[in-house]
Fold these 4 entries.
Entry 1:
Amino acid sequence: MTTNANLNLSEHPVLAHKLSILRSDQTTPADFRRVLREMTFNLGYEATTTLQTRPIQLTTPMTQTEGEKLSSSVALIPIMRAGLGMVDPMLELLPMSDVYHIGMYRSKGSLLPVQYYNKLPRDKSADVAYVLDPMIATAGTICAVVNILKKWGAKKIHVVSVLASKKGLETLMSTHPDVTVTVTAIDDVLTEDGMISPGLGDAGNRLYKTPTIDQDDDEKLVSPSKRKRTLST
């Protein structure tokens, strides 16, 4: 992939080790949740290096000095379901953050994103919005959420993911070149049904030990009155 200033591809050996645990089909849901939490905490440190601060005066046990305090207003935007597993470690880093949930899923036939839940407030936005989703596959869902956040008024958008497909990442960064992405690894293969290979499998199912639902489309799980199709561009 062409080098992009807005792409932060972590090559930390500890994260590479933990990613292998997430990939394994022998990893239990409890361990999957734990390792995703650990990886998110470390990715979060890398993703927050550009947050703005302001000087403050403080007193240490020895003397008075000048310190720094974060001045950027931050919103965490987990994409349900899988993004929920990344919220707590980000809140440990940024406890002052607001958390606004967006529910999206991909229509099985078209792979287009469908929005079924949105709790963005109308009366406020954020200096920086961190979009949390373990994987960037086709990027349709991520692009749709970025569109929503731009209309909402977020000044800067930063996507934090564990894994991305090469095609999905290229789609996201060409569609939204102003968005920053922090990710651990990039897989070359994206299957026809929108799955990353070797990938992680279905992160939501693995997080919550959810069995595969034998239905033609996830739309059957959502009330027709709540369905709202959101285009990725």
Note: Residues 227-233 have pLDDT under 50 and may be disordered.
Entry 2:
Amino acid sequence: MSARLLLPLFLGAAVALAAMPAQARTPRLSLIEQAQSCDGGATCPYFPDVYKADYAFRKAFNVGLKKAGLKRQRWVPDGVASPLKPVEIDGKARLLSSVCEPHNCGHRYSILYDPAARSMTGVYMGSDGKGGVRTVYFGEPSIAEAELLYKN
């Protein structure tokens, strides 16, 4: 075959291949979607990654703290964390995680995120400055949620 006959064939194939990935590409899951379908293990996204990447998650956390009269600790975006794992509580699907201050997990947040409502409940536990523990809940958790948050 001559090169002149092959050129249109190659051009057509190149155009078809260039168009194919756009049609065949599977949508990339957000970190929240990954967390909803993971097994709670190390392959699940971690709190700091989701906090940095997901605006609704970050907003729910920060608004919950503000309403409870708490300030977000500066270490939160880079804290030591557990993966977000799916749990069902009070008949609703939630994501459970915790984050603590590096080298001092005596200061920590435990959270339950509701992806459908884009809301969060949680608890902050840290020093009260007198040798005791200060525990402050935010986001109005139910009794079952508060128990789970305290244990996490």
Note: The beta strands are 80-81, 85-89, 92-101, 104-114, 119-127, 133-138.
Entry 3:
Amino acid sequence: MQNAEVRELVQRSLERYAGDERVLDAFWQWASNPTPPSAGYALEENAGFIATNLMLRYGEPAVDLVMSVNEECRRLAGRASIQELQRTIVTVLNGPVGEQLRQGIVRRLSQPTVARRALTAWLVNRARWRRMPGREPVVAGEFDWSLGADLEGSGADCQSAVLRALYGPEVAQVDLAREAMAVGVVNRLFYRNVAGRMEAKLRPGPRLPVSALVY
């Protein structure tokens, strides 16, 4: 199929769920699967990871939902390659169809807790110094979460000191990576390489304009 045909197919499919944040989230995660085609995509292995992310975020069992989304994606994969579907789903969900998904992430980031405020400040800071010239900075979970995720162990870090000054000493106990997973900035997904090595990877959620965040 031509790219335009795949885009129209995915657009029509996702528009049916435009008001259901959990379903859109599951589609996003399916499309964010980090396992390459050379290692077989590992779609079945990822199903459990997606359901766990959804449970952490929404507090509801999600196995049936993930199975339903997997089935629909496999049906779509009969019309285009999985790689092309993944790219197109991400593109569509970063547009108007994904508004409900992005609003949910912003809403969770805006919760007035020390952990969420610290996470938002950490994200905004990195978004600003990574911004492209002439473009509004966007928040995306494309950071190395092994760096700066342990605020307690990074006392010498300037930003950690600023966060402690803003939000109090309890911010040192915040696990930024877990908070980022809970709000949807990142997703913990299954990865396998062509040699068979397996691990969990944190993959970014939808991009959010910094102007939408309050911290």
Note: Residues 147-156 have pLDDT under 50 and may be disordered.
Entry 4:
Amino acid sequence: MTDHNNQDCGCGHDHNHEHDEDIFLVTDTDGVEHEMVMVYTFEADNQAYAVLLDRNAPDSDGVIFRIEEENDDAYLVSIEDDEEWNRVVTIYNELAMEEADGQA
């Protein structure tokens, strides 16, 4: 996880339910492993991103990772660049607000 792991995913979804998605093991900066589930994907500037939630703490903040592909394999990468992080969070928050407005 990056230093940005305290950001609220802001998606407005009720994350207090079971997920059928794959489980990802993510090690935080303290070396603690967390079981994470992917709850949302989106694209920003022709780059794919994923929002993951801690499977054992579904009310915790979501974490955004960049999805990178190499030789038909996809993997999650922490966003270390503050400029990219701020841009992606802004885009994600806009998408979440649009989705919330559409459900109202």
Note: The mean pLDDT is 79.
